[in-house]
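Person: Please work through this fold.
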Amino acid sequence: MSLASFFAAVTSSGLVSDEMEGVGKLKEKVVGNEAEDISGPKEEMSAYDLDHSVHYLVTNTEVDEALLHIRDGFVGFDTEFMACLPCYEERIIEDIFTMISGSKKAGIIAWQALQARTAAGFQIQWDNVGICLVQITRGDKVWLINLNRIKAFPGELRCLLSSPDVVKAGVGVASDLQVFWNDLGCDVNNVVDCGLMAKLLYAEKYANTPFTNLSLQTVAEETLKVTVSKAMQLSNWKGDDNGDLSAEQRKYAAIDAHACSEMYPLLVAALEDKADVLGQQIPSDWYTVNGRYGQPTRLRRTYWGKEVEWNSRDCPWFFGGKFQGY
């Protein structure tokens, strides 16, 4: 179902209240040749009726049933987490490996690699897991996976995140890779940063900044012509005493994930058009990464078979902290 058809169906069904109809303005902008500019002030992006398209999952079975058939294509991807410090023993061991390896980063990777190869590695300590919520969007459905309640890492969620065949479209994904590895021992693969895609698309407009991702708010304003509130970003994602999240938190989380899934195809089409105009390729490696022990690596391996760490300097358009031209 297209974005325009989805909003038309939801609005006509009466499932969207008057104060939420601002989202319906998005139906004026669709992927492909029908795309057109939206004039006038930006609308605030609100959540649709939670009972209609947003599914709040709190059991392993619910998650596995929801994600079972996602084996290709793309999904919108986001997480909400609260920072947790590593336990005392982990910090001591990482320091030892740092002294052996000669650098903090190499020491942490060496320790994590050893963990992954031992039978006792990555026995999840849920009291020390910072990831509270995982949001996955596909079509007109948003799944909010509450790991606070589940206290487990559902198999189909692990399969989806680690799959190289499913694009996970989000914003600011590098930090997510590290958190998933540190907390759950899972490397997330084929992750697209819509913030980096937008940076390439609007390179001239943001010429005096380095090749880092634009924020979700900025990308939504540029591509969807809507504003996305971040008022709930720093709320308590551990939830109440039962681990449940408030209705406001659920709406916030649903909007973020759905925005990513709507922005991604628009950005793909726009970058293809820009590449045609420039007469040069815009490699997906510039904005797509795989996780390797939580570190972002290039989407494709080098010709000699080694995995190479993703680096912003891979994109020659930006150098010295600003845009240098095509």
